[in-house]
Amino acid sequence: MSTKTIGGLKLNLKRTFLIGFAFFGILLLWQVYDSWCPTFLTDIFARQMYDLSSAQLKAGAPDKILNVQWIVGIIMACDNLAALILLPIFGNLSDKTKTPIGKRMPFILIGTMVSAIAFPFIPLFFHYNNIVGMVAIMVIVLIFMMMYRNPAVSLMPDITPKPLRAKANGIINIMGYFGGAFATVLGIFLPLSNYINVEDEARKVWIIEIPFIIASVLMIISAFVLFATIKENKLAEQLKDELARGEEMAAIENPVDDDAPMSKANKRMLLAILGAEFLWFMADNAIGTYIGNYVIYYINSASSNTMILTIIGGVASVIGFATAGMIADKIGRKWTISCGLGFTVLGLVLMCFAAPTGKVVGANGEYSFPFILYIVGIIRGYGMALVHNCSFPMVVELCSFKKIGKFTGYYYAASMSAQTITPVLLGLVFKVSLAWRALPIYASVMLVLSFMVFTALVKNIKAKKVENAHGLEAIDGD
Known about the structure:
Blueprint: E1 5-6, E2 9-10, H1 13-50, H2 54-60, H3 62-67, H4 69-96, H5 105-118, H6 121-127, H7 131-158, H8 165-189, H9 193-196, H10 205-229, H11 232-238, H12 240-248, H13 264-298, H14 303-351, H15 371-396, H16 404-433, H17 438-457
Antiparallel strand pairs: 1-2
Helix pairs in contact: 1-4, 1-7, 1-8, 1-10, 1-13, 4-7, 4-16, 5-7, 5-10, 6-7, 6-10, 7-16, 8-10, 8-14, 8-15, 13-14, 13-15, 13-16, 13-17, 14-15, 14-17
């Protein structure tokens, strides 16, 4: 396979795709977690608080469903609070770790194994109405996924020169979306609504158990593919000169020095990026956490439609990741992210006009899915891909090779702090407003604030020394 040279540096396509298996496992688990767990929590709390069956709640108690969303938000936020604390710790630890298999790989392997073993117990405890057991397993899974997540994401910048990281980030994000697609397809053929809409005694545990088991198996396979093909220590030695050259080409205001404190300009830029990131994750996680309940309890449609919506958004995201480098080459990373935020706001404004169709199509009285939500999914998927593709490389470009794990921790600390706050805050908004339309309005407000912070405070720094590759040329390699 040919090699694309950019400023004398080469992006190895095969190696980058193999690193992407780490992200494959991460998004596979999160897609299952985010698609099923909020509805598990909604159903089990509402049933126990109001002494009604799931079918009765869905059919005639929408106010009761909305009233428990703040509790759902607290549970989801507690998990993220643990992540907020642990992500920087594991990032810093992995920076300082030295083993025969590398500094990231021990964390990846241990985190994957424990998470994968625990994960299928979440639906099992739910099926047997054990709230304490279910929440405890959710916490265990999240803690060990944090052990895995930060080192796994740090692996890409560890062995990729700075000017090539936006392109490499696009590749590993595409691999991640393949992981999410596996989970989404499972949700189409094993819809959660088929479980929720029946009386308790008729429920079949395998409907909700199979997606979790398959996710665990695929996570383990992806981790061992990564372990078998990516030899950290060997690659770090082979790529030492390329990484040093990449440091010289970084698109930052002041050069990075291992031993010197961050310059004021770089520190301001880091804080501005993290502040904007916090706000856009407040919006994005609001949709991710509550979209399943929104479709089941407000749109009154089958949960499989949520999965189809996710697939459509995922395809749009892949297109976004493939084109982000070309756009950034023309207008810079700052304005690429700003455009992505603008597109996403447009999609969420359209979502404000979505409503139940009233057209019964399912055996359980479910309505057809509003077409406008597919348009929203496409716009939001493409827009957030532009944002995610360029934002992480901007953060790790502000640090040296020795601090990648630490700065990856900063990036995820900002996202996880948002994901700690937003489920609770939006849950309280639902409780006060008793309106599902609060979801797109809330998300739109957060994105507008993010756009304002990002465009006002982040400098539009664009590397003049490196010509960015266009389109798929950017991922051509050995």
